[in-house]
Sequence to fold (85 residues):
Amino acid sequence: MLNIKVVSLSLGVSAAVSFVVCILWGLLMPESLHMHGFLELVLPGFKWLNAGNFVLGLVESFLFGIYAGIVYVPIRNYFSKRFAA
Fold:
């Protein structure tokens, strides 16, 4: 059985770290390799780039990770119980 708090927080932090890596990538790489179009598409309200939008994207990424854990863990635990040997 997976612990929903552990998995949700792990996914939230992983998503936030991934967001920071994408931002750093966008700042260091040429325009043709940027991820800003994708980030603007998947993060509501995010526009490339100022301090306020960075914080907004970081918070949204964390919350989307939390959401993924909240959805995934009960489903996984249900099927784990149902089909356990």
